[in-house]
Structures are given as structure tokens and as C-alpha cells.
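In response to reviewer comment 3 from the previous cycle, which asked for concrete evidence that the modeling workflow produces usable outputs, we include below a single protein chain processed end to end. The sequence was submitted unchanged, and the resulting C-alpha cells are shown without manual editing.
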Amino acid sequence: MTDAQSTAPPSPLILDIRVHGVSNTPPAEMLESEPDAIERVDGDALGSFWARKDKAVNGDGITSTHAFSWGAQTRTGGGALAAVGRAFVHVGWFLLLPYALVNLAYWTREIRPQPDGTTRAWHGDIGSGTVRVFGLVLTFIAVAAFCSVAIDLVAVQCFRGSVDEADRVCAALPAIFDGLREFDVDSRAALLGLIPVLIILVLYSIARRGRVRFEARIEKFGEQIGSQEDAGRPLLATRGFWSAARSRDTSEWLHVAGAFVLVLFLLAWDAAFPDADCLGAPLTKDLATCLGPIDGMPMAFVVVAGVGLVLVVIGVIIASSTPPQATQTAKTMNPVRLAQQKQTPDKRNARKRVYALSCLGYAVLGYLVWLVLTFLPSTDPAKVADQFTGLITAPLVLMSVALFLALYALSWRLRSTWRRRTSAIVLSLGAGALLASQVLSDSALQWVLTGAAIAFVLLHLLISRTSQPNPAVAEGESDAGELRFRAWRGQGAAVVMLLSLFVSMALSSLLVLGVASWLGAPAPPETDRIWREPGDPLPVTEWNVPDAYERFAVLLLAVVVGIVLLLILAIGINLAKLVKFTLPELKWRGSAPDDEVDAAAGGGVDAPGATYPDPLDDPDERVRIRALARRSSHLLHRGEPLFAWIAVFAAVGFLALSSSIAFDEAKLILAEWAPGLPAGLRTAATSVLVALAVVAAAAVVANAASSADRPLGVFWDVVAFFPRAGHPFAPPCFAERAVPELAEHTRRFLRQPRADAAAPLPAVMLTAHSMGSTISAATILALRGETIVEDDPESPRLTERLALLSYGSQLRAYFSRYFPSVFGYQVLGVPGLTAPSLWKRDPWKTQVLAEFPGPGAAADEESIKASKAEVHAAAYRDESLTALLGAGAKGDPRWRNLWRRTDFLGFPVFSYDSARNPVDRGATETAPGYQWTVAKHSAYLGTEQIELARAELVTALRAGP
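The workflow returned the following C-alpha cells.
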């Protein structure tokens, strides 16, 4: 032993926890070993920690390495049967996509820091109640679609005649349904009306199973979070985020109650007008005149159901937040009582559950009474019906309500209360005018109401505009930051809500039109060898397909055509030529390969010039392959502007659909110009709808079954990351289990007893890929304030012994922009990121030009150092992720992030400029292995760059407390 070795301070125990990303990397691969050479050291089948059996170390300062496998919480494992299971799971999630998007809309809003991070209170902030009401309306849209199938198409239209003369049944309907001929129309409708409710109950049971699955662990984790006397920021470090923000049985019961009362309302409304003849309304007749005389008893149930709907909406709004008790109450309360209140759920939550359960009981009782009454002699067995009046306008009304709720979200970025209230009043007037146009047949009055609605919408857009870079500054601090660093300039909730409405109507239309085509298909005609004569379409009096869904199919066709043309234009611009992107600086242990010795050798540039990005002329074969990979990966970076265009097209289309006169007049004009064109467009639109559904389902199945890099995987994992706060039927939140498990494993290692009190404190390095970096960042933020020795404020904090090594991360590019209050750039402690462009060859050109010094800037070492210090001072923020990891005036954060331009899901988390960057490190674009291939989203482990970055963090951990 040398003198230097004998005097060197002892090295700490360092545990490297490797966390996989969207590709669900197997533990053996993360540990760079074989499956039979590893063992599970903690966890179960859903979430587990693995280690090598030989306990081998690499001599790089890491004393042990564990692999955290969390992917089974969102998908099944490997193997053929498991691949089938993944396919079914992801197809099921696809059907729940509208509700998942509503949940994302909840978290895209600006949510200010909680008043107190130590209680189970949760202040949802502006728009939380509206998002939940919007989610309820989407549930109603699904219920209306199921009612259109079960009641309108099957119970009413597939059985013609009275009980005594029901001699005609849809030929396509299985014979098992023939027994329904024994019931009158109202009894049959009430009986089959249970089907939509049963489907909602299935969704409820799935949601409850997913919630209960993680509930005990997350409750314990919430208690640990709440034991710290810290302020309510960041949100991930508050007990309310983990324990109170998500929807529970209160919201679930309210949605089930809403399904019951909506079906009851539709059934009672139809029965209240037994002589109604409203086919073609409101184009050819007023709804007020076509309904006919009122039957008193069913109208009483309409009132009962209407009251129930109002009670459900009120309950959903009340359940959206559980703010802390008023300050004056806290001041006068007994200190012991106040301390107890902080450790127990707010009693108002119990009262909300009682209210929700009462609403559910009210709804079930009302429906059961109606069901019993329809089977009593008081109903008319001779009643004959070929239309269901309750669903003539219901889908359009629900769609219009959802549209205006989404448009209202445009004003939420404003902190001016009077402007938001004015906007709400203006939109309410517009919605009222538009809904009134749906029940009148006077075309002149319809046009006036439609014009007034459009004017109100335009006025709302004007009120919602703001020139302030950060409207929240006027009323205090906010972690969301400036609007230019938020997705869609802070209007993410409106965009995502419009997208969820679009998807919801697409799924509903596919269901209704698909079943209508099947049930309404005439018997096949006789054929002459290979020829047949197509039959004429059935008249509306014989087979009436619900109008709202046919209209939406036409809208979908128009949106698809518009988006396809937009994509063709954008792809044409971006694929015209190869360009030179800025490339991150690469570090090597020895000499660099010839094709990556510098940016120019790799077909890129070190810094942007005046005409950035310049064309890449006459590259050699390997450089050309790299350039093609960069270009294709950057095509996938343009999702944000593309989704904005889809939302705009959808909003304009929904506004047109909500106006009966606009759509119907266009239909008449087309019919006069080309008599068969409207029917042809309807058929083509239905075909496009079915084709898109098949393509989407195939993509989801292929994405689930594939073990390769899967761009769609990050979407599914983002959908399931956040607690279900927007809609109770959204996919279960895997972060509610993954984050507590990772936190507990980390906490246990850092708090292990030391034989020698003078020995250095143990440390943990989180090596995280892709979505794993989001889980790791959430874990570090959630551990803020916890100490090595529990209940000892003088003990070092856990976060002082943590380091983060991320690669292929979306933390800044996606999460900081889409969810600014949870993962915003100020929460991460990094510079903000501007929006990508749909049209520029480098979608991040604006950001690249802003982060590199301008032409003529001093390039000497002192100038670069001063510029670097200025950038760091502007980015680092108290209690941010970088601050928790040691960033500040004394040094850089214990965070390194690897990225490459060929990675379609990997981005820098601090800056595109390597010279002034304390966090980001470039990774080679050549995948490790004997055969030369371009590395994309995987193939980071095993590169020299990740080993060098790990060594930097080991050095930083050794220098820690």
C-alpha cells in the first residue's frame, strides 16, 4: 500500500439504481448480465429490484447495482402470451383514451403551490371543477352512444309494431332477442337501458380495481411526505398531490349516478311525448311542435332525472378540491385538535362521499321505480314507435356543452377574475344561442342565433388574449413560468380537452354507425355470377341512423383531409434536403472514431451560423445514414404544433356541427348540386372512421407487442403517470406505486446503520432511461426535506446523497412544457424551452439560436465562464430539482443527462450548447456492438460517454457530506 492510498479518505457505499423507460428493458439487460445470473432482491411481480448474483463491481466507485423494473404496472412482461396480454391491455387503454386525455388536461393547467404541503388538503386552482364537469360530460357522451345502440337501434327500431303485432324484427339481430317482442316499447327500452349503465359499472369496477391496487402504498407514502414541515411546493413534494388530488370513490359514484339519471331522463323524455314525430327536426319542423301532447307521469320522471343531473354536476364540482380550513379557524382552534387535523383526512371528504352515495341511491331508486312502472298495466301495450325522441338532440347537446367547456379553458391562464367571469358569461350566451338554434325550424332565426353564437365565441377569444409573458406574476409566485415556455402558450388544457372530445365522438360514432350498418344492412340480393345489383339506401322512416354521429363522421373526414394536406406540406418542406444540425460535444477516454472526431466529421456543426441549418452536401455513406436518422427522429418532435392544428380544426368543426342550420343547409346545397353527393360523403366518412379505428387499433397492438423502440410507448406511459384527478375512469396511475417503491428503496439504503460513525454517508445514483428519468425526478422531488436520521433536522438531507444520471429523457422537451406546474422548467431548475416548429427543418431552431452565443460574442475562456455563470444563476431556483442535487454558486448539480440527435425521444435537459452546460453530455450515435448501426433511443448503456458521466457523479458523491 502506498502512502497516498493509506491517507486517502474512505469511499462511501454507492448504490446505482437503474430505472428503465418506455421500452421496458429487462432487468438482466439493465444489469448488463444474463437472466439466469440475476436475482430479485426486493418487490413483487409488478415492481421489483434486481441484482447480479455474483455482486460484481466494475471498479468505477459503484459498490452495488440494482435494476428497478416497474413496467409490469403498465404492461405485462415478455413472451408470446404476455405480448397478447399487452395487446389487450393497450387496446383497452385505447378505448379509455378520452378519459385519459381529460386527466392530462387537468395536469396541463397552471396549479399554484399548495397553501400547506403537510396536509391532505388539495387546492385544484382555476379550472379544476370545470375539467371534472367536462369529464362527466364525456361520460354522458359515451352513455348516449350506448343508448343509441341499445335503446334507439335495438329496442325501438329493430322491433316494429305493438306487443300484439310485433311481427318484424331486424334480420341481423340474433334470434335470442326475439323474446323482447313480448314487451311494449317503453318496457323494452327500460330493460335494454340497463346496458349502458352496466358498461359504466364495468368501467367503474376496472377503475376501482386499479385504484385499490396501489392505494395502501400511496397512503403510506403520503403520510411520509406529510411528516415534513415544508411549504406546498413543488407539487410533487406535497401530501395533497399523492393523497388528495386523485379521484376516489366520490367521483366514481357520481359518474355512475350520472349514467343512471341520464338514461332515466332519455327514457322518460321519450315516454312523455307518445305522439312525437320529430324525424327531420329541426330542419323541417320545430321540436316544440313535433313533440305533441305531454304525458304527465313520464314528465314527472323527467323532472326527477333533471334534478338528479343537477345534483351530480354540483357534486363533481364540490369534489374537485379540498382546500385547507380557513386561517382564522386555525388560529382559534385548540393546538392539539389542529395537530390531529393535519394527520387525518379532512372531514369534508367524508361528507362528500355521503353526498355522492346519496346521489347514487337517488339515481338507482329512480331508475328502478321507472323500470317497475313500465311493466305495469299503466303503460300502453298498443304503443307503436319507429323513433326514439330522447336521442334526437341529446348527443349534439352534450357535444356542444363539452365544446364550450373546452373553449372556456382558454381563459384559465388569465389571473384577472373579472375577465374570466366575463368570458364565462359570454360563452354561456353563445352556447345558449347555439342550443336554441337546434330546436327551431325558422331558418332566418337559426342563422341569427348561429351568427350570435359565433360572435360570442370570437369575443371570448379576444377577452382570453394576453400580452403578459407570465400572467401569474401579478398575484404571486407560480412554478409554471412564462407562457412561451408552456405548451400552446399556457392553453394546454383547452387543446387537450378539444382532443379528448374529438376522440370521444370518434369512438362513439364508430360504435353507433358500425352497429347501425350491421343491423340496417338489407338481405344480400341475388347474384349473377360475380355481379350483383346494389340496393337502394333505406328511407329514414324505415331505418333512421342517429344524426349526430353521421354528422361527426363527415367532420372527421374533413379534419383528416386537412391534417393530411398539412402533413404533406410539412413533410415536403422538411424532407427536401439533409441539413447540418448542431451536435453535442462528445467526450472519449482515448481517441475518438474518425467519423465522430468532431461535429463536422459527423455531418453537423458545433454552433449555428446565420443561415442555420445549412444543407448537408454530398455526405459519405455513414454520414448520410446518420443525417437520415436525425431527420426522421426530428419529424417526431413536431407533435405539439400538430396537435394544435388538430384542436383548431376540431373546434371549428364542432362549432359547425352544433349549428343545425349550417350543416343542414350545406347538405341541401350539395344535394341540389349533386344529388348523390351527401350520401356518398356520408358513406365515405363512415368508411374513413372505421379505417382510422382499425389503423389505430393495429398501431396500438403492434406497439404493445413489439420489443423494439416504440414512440407510442411514451404516450401510454405519460397517460398513466399522473394521478387520476380529471376523470375517475382514466387508466390507473403507475407512478402512485413506482415512485413510492423507488423512494423507499432509496431511503432504506441511505438510512442503513453504519458500523463506523466516521465513515462517509452512503449515496445513491439513479441511472434512468427515458420515462425512468421522470420517475426518478419525481422521486427526488418527493424526498425533499427528508433527512438521513429521521426527525433530526440537523441531519443531512437525503437529497444531499443523491445523484441523477439520465439518458434519452423528455423532462424538459415534453414534461416541462406540457405540465408546467408539476415538471416546469422552474421546478426542474433549468432554462425554459420554447415551442418546436412544424415548418423549420430543425424544429428547435429558435431555442438553439437563443442558447448559443450570437455572432461576434467573445470566445475566450473567461467570457465563456462568465456567460455560463449567468445562465446557471438564471436557471437554478430554490427547491428545484437542480438545487436539491447541489446546484448553486458553489458548484454544478449532481445530474448528468446524455442525449443524441438521432434519438426521437431524447433531448437535452439544460441546453443545446455544450460549452455552457453543466448537465447535458453528448452520446455517440454509433450503437455498441461489432456491427455498425445508428443508435437511437436505446443503446446508451455501454457507451464511453455514460461511463464518463457516471465517473463525474461518483466524484461529486465522494465529495459530499
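The mean pLDDT is 82. We consider this sufficient to address the reviewer's concern, and the full set will be provided in the supplementary archive.
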